[in-house]
Amino acid sequence: MTESIQIQLKKGALELCVLALLAHRESYAYEIASTLAAGVDMGEGTIYPLMRRMQNDGLVDTRLVESSSGPPRKYYRLTSSGRAAFVAQKREWRAFTDAVNKLLGEAR
């Protein structure tokens, strides 16, 4: 797979991945970025603009938590709209991957 295709696939799945992480528990941006970097080799720089957009779109709320090792951390958690978006995007992702797998002859 060429690098540009990999980048586009990652960009397309990034919001879904963040919603999935936050569906389990609240987290701060660096922790989200580190988890995505380890799991799907996603660069850290893409997370901060996405988190800002998700907050503006009403998908996440934030709260500041004091840190013993530096400035306060901004923790993100899903709103009810964020949970609904996660359910909808997960359903769309599964339908899409099922269709692609069918085309590839790898249907479940």
Task: Explain how this protein is built.
By secondary structure, this protein is an alpha+beta fold. The protein has a single domain (3-103), classed as Arc Repressor Mutant, subunit A. Helix content is 63%, strand content 18%. It contains four helices and three strands, in the order αβααββα. A three-stranded antiparallel sheet has the order 1-3-2. α1 (3-24) packs across α4.
Provide key terms for this protein.
alpha+beta, Arc Repressor Mutant, subunit A, three-stranded antiparallel beta sheet, 4 helices
What's the β-strand tally?
3
Full CATH superfamily name: Winged helix-like DNA-binding domain superfamily/Winged helix DNA-binding domain
| Total helical segments | 4
Largest sheet: 3 strands, antiparallel
Order of helix and strand elements from N to C terminus: HEHHEEH
Write the CATH fold name.
Arc Repressor Mutant, subunit A
Beta-strand percent range: 15-25%
Biggest sheet strand order reads: 1-3-2
Overall radius of gyration: 16 Å
In total, the number of domains comes to 1
Note the overall shape. globular
- Based on the structure given, which CATH architecture is correct? Orthogonal Bundle
Characterize this entry briefly.
This protein is 63% helix and 18% strand. The chain has 108 residues and is of the alpha+beta class.
Q: Can you lay out the helices and strands and say which pair or pack?
A:
Blueprint lengths: L2 H22 L2 E2 H12 L6 H10 L3 E8 L2 E9 L1 H24 L5
Antiparallel strand pairs: 1-3, 2-3
